[in-house]
Amino acid sequence: MDSITALLEGFATAAQPAYLLYALLGVTLGTAVGVLPGIGPAMTVALLLPLTYSLDPTAALIIFAGIYYGGMYGGSTTSILLNTPGESASIVTALEGNKMARAGRGAAALATAAIGSFVAGTIATVLLTLLAPAIADIAVTLGPADYVALMVVAFTTVAALLGSSPVRGLASLGLGLFIGLIGTDTLSGQQRFTLGVSTLADGIDVVVVAVGVFAVGEALYVASRLRHGPIEVIPVGGRWMTRSFWARSWKPWLRGTFIGFPIGTVPAGGADVSTFLSYAAEKKLSKRPEEFGHGAIEGVAGPEAANNAAAAGVLVPLLTLGLPTSATAAVIVAAFQSYGIQPGPLLFTNNSAMVWALIASLYIGNVMLLVLNLPLVKMWVKVLQIPRPYLYAGILLFAALGTYAVNFVVDDLIVLLVIGVAGFFMRRHGYPVAPLVVGLILGPMAEEQVRRTLQISEGSLSALVTSPFAAVAYGVLVVLLAVAVVVRLRQKKVESLV
After folding, report:
1. For residue 170, what are the domain limits?
2. Cys-Cys crosslink for 105: which of 238, 278, 280, 313, Cβ 3.0 to 4.6 Å?
């Protein structure tokens, strides 16, 4: 009942006209960004981080949450009409959705994706509302060694499972951990890896790194691969949801929700894994398996529901444990930290009004997204026609202005350029950027918890693994890695069909 009361208070805050406008701004930006191939929610949140410092924390986080949910919605439009997923989680939608569009059923594909996203997003947000406070209560009882174990799980799974190669993921994580060490050691007061540059004595701002790898790096990478000539977009054709389409979609929506949400809560589970599992489940359970590969509506409904349910699931470890398990979640943690707020078990105690307003805004944003996606789909198609040179030039300009606005120091622009070029080469050679940002954010926290554990145990390393919770966490890590190997093998089979 306490959660219900707190949620109602959150609705009272989120329903204020100013916050409703911020929610609308977030979901609109998120949808527009999700529609554009190669630009994801992580880039948009990173780009807007420096530009929202004038807002209060609640307003900024409502905008970012709207972008997060909206980006998941918008990716389906590009996948269905262009056969070019805006986000990796939308790859599966392209399999069946684009075939439906080419067969003159594009309107039905877009409708089942939008409605499925709404259903899954709402159910998953309800589950977030119920589970997050309980998990936060448990997390308060954890000790330093337990947090070290959680961070090791996050490091290992995010680095080993994101991207095409575990080795490259671990290398990206190592680079992030190194960048996190740059600055002044809080314990000894000694400068580390600053090369005598006074600007680096305070460390490299997370916002600068996030904007560098996601905005500058991604813009350079996508610009280097631009296609020349006009983009061919399949017209939105056919009827919207018929009775037959409703009958074939509602079960996949529910199945996708309950596949996506728990996987989203697991480190490195995320939307990618859940969409592939949902697609495989729908293909196995379908009464029309012969339609898969030729435009089966179940292959759009299930994965899109799983995609959005996983997006809500990712918020569970983020809000309750402070663990980002995806690229966008890592940037949202940076947004929290830029306001001096640390996501974790004390968030629901120290910042209760803000976090419940944030959760309430997710419900409101879901309704807004349904209204935006169904009637305005032709407008989103127009967004696909924006000339790419103008688009990416604008991104680079806003990245530079936003970074300079953080500290009003020119040296930050040099750091931004260096990190942006590094991010470009990482993307060019298949190194995932998410582990870098996760390592940068969690690295200093992990170092602090390791030191605290060793101080309590008087230097005994066994204290890091003898805690019951830590032992269970490491056991779960082994199981996760084993399951991930099996899932990845299945995922490669599905990707070969695209």
Report:
1. 2-495
2. 238
Helix (H) or strand (E) holding 347: helix 347-350
Residue 331 neighbours by CB distance under 10 Å: 32
Query: Is the pLDDT at 90 greater than 90, yes or no?
Result: no
Buried b (16+ CB within 10 A) or exposed e, 75-105: bbbbbbbbbbbbbebbbbbbbbbbbbbbeeb
- Global pTM value: 0.78
How far apart (Å, rounded) are the C-alpha atoms in residues 352 and 137? 13
State the Cα–Cα distance between residues 151 and 149, nearest whole angstrom. Answer: 5
Measuring CA to CA, which residue among 357, 439, 342 is closest to residue 139?
A: 342
Residue 20 is predicted with a pLDDT of: 93
- What three-state secondary structure class fits 299? helix
Residue 7: pLDDT above 70?
Answer: yes
For residue 144 the two structure tokens come to 């330093």
- What pLDDT was estimated at residue 231? 57
* 178 CB-near residues (< 8 Å, 6+ apart): 193
Of 494 and 486, the one with more pLDDT: 486
Could you tell me where the DSSP H helices lie in 374-467?
A: 377-383, 388-407, 410-428, 434-456, 463-466
Q: Is 286 helix (H, G, I), strand (E, B) or coil?
A: coil
Query: Are 302 and 278 spatial neighbours (Cβ–Cβ below 8 Å)?
Result: yes
